[in-house]
Amino acid sequence: MVKVSIVIPARNEAANIDALLDEIAAACTPVADHEVIVVDDGSDDATSQAVQARMANHDNLRLIRHDRSAGQSAAVHSGVLAAKAGIVCTLDGDGQNPPAELPKLFLPLLADGAEAIGIVAGQRVGRQDTLSKKLASRFANGLRSWMLRDGTRDTGCGLKAFRRDAFLRLPFFNHMHRYLPALFARDGWQVAHVDVSHRPRGAGRSNYNNLQRGLVGAVDLFGVMWLLRRRKTSAPVELRKGG
After folding, report:
1. If DSSP codes are grouped into helix, strand and coil, which group holds residue 126?
2. Which of the listed residues 65, 136, 143, 183 has the most CB atoms within 10 Å of its CB?
3. What's the predicted TM-score (pTM) here?
């Protein structure tokens, strides 16, 4: 039985995907039965072909393709919908999230007594990005943390593990992947954090720039605040006959 589904949103990552899949197999095969779902978000390079070339020899590898780019959150959502396991892990397709960190994320959710934990969120240490990107991220994370009080230092980290059924009950919107700790807490789940390492991009270039992130982030932040203020506050309890 598949215990963990690993979802990789990828756009134009043909030069990185083979090495990433090799590292995932090395890190996860000894630990838990798992599947890997690559979601090709409208790539115009050979990302899908590279994954398909491996699928004949890897029964646990699956490929989903968007006919046009819909963004990282949409890619993650498509992968979670297709996942067979109750626990889902995500990591970026550019190779900056080391797959060796994956067990640190999903094992706490598989442990006995962990039923109250909804998500384990990675928080990067020693980030290997440009100075401008690190400064922009620090500002955005600081503002978000102050406004949402979500107790999370780094929501932009792609390394996360969470319960599939809980994720699918969250309100879906573009860029929601950056607000998962706050959204899980909104629904009453405990949020756990683990420090994870980071490394330079393997090849290619980022699909986003600081200006794009900043503009959409400002709108999203107020939207998430609205969702948190209008969360459901009652907890339904089913009563049995004679109870």
Report:
1. coil
2. 183
3. 0.83
